[in-house]
């Protein structure tokens, strides 16, 4: 599936940051397993665009605080809890700009990722990857999309074709959870204890069909990846290898 970026950018300007899928499947979207909602990549794109717009309007760290989940992880010198790192942090004079080129969706209807081009204020160009989750139930009247993982770096982005954005959804058959023992799945429970992230870690969608991993090594180099379930095994759809010393 491919989505036209300019049309969606205009659409996003008319929607609040908590925008999500409307009841029923939009054309070209995918139905999840029985009892699960539709996997709507448009909802993730709208949230990602709104986040980028909010950063320009209110400041990069202010926008990040307002859109991050309570247990969101971001990568700075290493993995940190985003809300703790962002607390009382002054916004930079100019925010970065970003544009999604690829979207990925789990079958649970509440987890997706955006990956694309990141433009730094000093003119340098890199890439970013953000994972989004609806903290409410997939069909809630007032969904609450928040990012749960975010990183950007001065590495080349895998771009789509011009203004077109590619979208891919996991295959909704098989048993991916059998391969994810010990991995935190789904949004954190409201009363759960939030632990500081380790240098290497992994989280997954509620149904286990999307997994995101990070590994920050002692020299500062790091690897970020996203795997989608293809019905029989996991397939890596994003892999960002960031060398030591890169921003």
How many runs of DSSP E, i.e. beta strands? 15
Number of helices: 4
Return Rg in Å.
17 Å
CATH topology of the domain at 2-171: Nuclear Transport Factor 2, Chain: A
Write down the secondary-structure element order. EHEEHHEEHEEEEEEEEEE
- Strand adjacency order, main sheet: 1-10-6-7-8-9-4-5
Please state roughly what percent of the residues sit in beta strands, choosing from under 5%, 5-15%, 15-25%, 25-35%, 35-45% or over 45%.
Answer: 35-45%
Identify the CATH class of the domain at 2-171: Alpha Beta
Largest sheet composition: 8 strands, mixed
The appropriate CATH architecture of the domain at 2-171 is: Roll
**What's the N-to-C terminus distance?**
32 Å
What would the average pLDDT be, to the nearest integer? 84
Which regions contain 5 or more consecutive residues with pLDDT less than 50? 1-37
Structural class: alpha+beta
Helix proportion of residues, in percent?
10-25%
Describe this structure in words.
The chain is α+β, with helices and mostly antiparallel strands. The protein has a domain of 170 residues: Nuclear Transport Factor 2, Chain: A (Roll). The protein is 16% helix and 37% strand. It is built from 4 helices and 15 strands. An 8-stranded mixed β-sheet has the order 1-10-6-7-8-9-4-5. Strands 11-12-13-14-15 form a 5-stranded mixed β-sheet, with no helix packed on it. Strand 12 and strand 13 form a beta hairpin. Helix 1 packs across helix 2 and helix 2 packs antiparallel against helix 3. The radius of gyration is 17 Å and the shape is globular. 44% of the residues are buried.
């Amino acid at each position: 599936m491919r989505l036209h970026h300019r049309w969606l950018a205009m659409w996003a300007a008319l929607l609040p940051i908590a925008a999500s899928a409307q009841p029923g499947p939009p054309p070209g979207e995918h139905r999840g397993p029985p009892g699960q909602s539709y996997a709507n990549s448009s909802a993730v794109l709208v949230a990602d665009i709104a986040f980028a717009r909010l950063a320009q309007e209110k400041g990069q760290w202010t926008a990040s605080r307002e859109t991050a989940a309570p247990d969101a992880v971001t990568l700075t010198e290493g993995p940190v809890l985003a809300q703790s790192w962002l607390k009382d942090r002054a916004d930079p004079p100019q925010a970065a700009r970003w544009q999604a080129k690829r979207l990925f969706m789990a079958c649970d209807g509440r987890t997706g990722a955006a990956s694309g081009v990141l433009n730094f204020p000093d003119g340098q160009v890199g890439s970013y990857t953000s994972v989004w989750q609806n903290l409410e139930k997939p069909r809630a009247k007032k969904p609450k999309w928040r990012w749960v993982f975010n990183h950007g770096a001065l590495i080349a982005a895998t771009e789509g074709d011009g203004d077109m954005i590619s979208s891919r959804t996991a295959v909704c058959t098989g048993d991916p959870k059998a391969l994810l023992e010990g991995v935190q799945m789904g949004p954190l429970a409201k009363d759960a204890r939030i632990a500081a992230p380790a240098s290497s870690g992994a989280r997954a969608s509620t149904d286990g069909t999307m997994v995101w991993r990070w590994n920050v090594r002692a020299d500062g180099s790091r690897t970020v990846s996203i795997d989608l379930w293809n019905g029989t095994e996991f397939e890596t759809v994003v892999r960002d290898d960031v060398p030591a010393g890169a921003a």
